Please model this.
Amino acid sequence: MRKLMLLAAALTLVATQALAVTSIKNTKHDLSTTSTGATTVKSTNYEEICIFCHTPHKAIDQLNAPLWNRSGTDAIVITNYYNSATLDVGTSNPATVTAKIAVSDAKLCLSCHDGASLTNDLANPSNLEAGVQPAGLAELLAANPANIGVDLHDDHPIGMVYADVVTATPTEFVASPVGSIKFYDGGVMWCSSCHDVHDNTAAPFLATSNVASGLCLACHNK
Ligand code: HEC
Ligand code: HEC
Ligand code: HEC
Ligand code: HEC
Model:
């Protein structure tokens, strides 16, 4: 009987977890006035959340950006990047990687994380605020770890086609990473392959938990 009760309790827990809905609300990516998650940066006049990144109308028609609302994003220049296309230096193809980084989500993230663009105007400001731009936002200071700058050579590589890397170095990589790891636009690795901007369940906004390096081991055979 006791065993049965334990089983029932465990099942209830599983069911509750399965139903739990995650949200961007009250995370550091909620820059609205009432956000309890944003600590160093939030607006003093905007009550909406999505608007700092997306707009349903008059979105910026550029990049790989879903209904993107951050003006100036395309003008960001990535000065440097991790320029190896595979772990095997001999088959690296930096030119291809540059092209694919250009259409990745890197600039979407850098439109705040470069330390200079977070306070740029929104392409389509809020009707609720009568078209006034957000107030009270501040750039991420150089000392803020979230300011990763526009030099990506010291960051984990992105921009390569994951399957190509697996083909070049098959023993090094998991052929089909499971969990919430996604590839984009023909199998290219983006910042969002490792991160989910909308969900901080596995902090900091990770696609899957990195406890015991679970995120790294989802792709790397090490
Ligand atoms: C801090 C910036 C940011 C905020 C705020 C934000 N998003 Fe996003 N969103 C992104 C980025 C970057 C992408 C592209 C990367 C991706 O596909 O996950 C994206 C992609 C999406 C997509 C398409 C891909 C997917 O993940 O399903 C949807 C739908 C979406 N966002 C909805 C929303 C809604 C609704 C809100 C508000 C509740 C919101 N977003 C708030 C940055 C943001
Ligand atoms: C979504 C899959 C994926 C995840 C998750 C991932 N990596 Fe990687 N990693 C790659 C790919 C693909 C490369 C090869 C890129 C290249 O050619 O340089 C790579 C390259 C590397 C390299 C070698 C860089 C080089 O090419 O010289 C190191 C070190 C590394 N990753 C560490 C990590 C660590 C640590 C984590 C966890 C925080 C991690 N990776 C998570 C896919 C992943
Ligand atoms: C609208 C601006 C904006 C955009 C766009 C944006 N971020 Fe952020 N992000 C922030 C702010 C603000 C913080 C909080 C900085 C702080 O409080 O120190 C943050 C924090 C983070 C953190 C650290 C969270 C922590 O707990 O320390 C990560 C990781 C992150 N963002 C990843 C991303 C990625 C990946 C993208 C693109 C897919 C992205 N962000 C796009 C504004 C943005
Ligand atoms: C291979 C996986 C991977 C990729 C790709 C990746 N990140 Fe991260 N990122 C992480 C992990 C893991 C952490 C948490 C590091 C820690 O806890 O020390 C992190 C932390 C961060 C932080 C918080 C900085 C800090 O040190 O607190 C920001 C901001 C961030 N990432 C943005 C980005 C952006 C923007 C991109 C794309 C240019 C990107 N990440 C690509 C895995 C990745």
User: Anything to note?
Assistant: The radius of gyration is 20 Å.
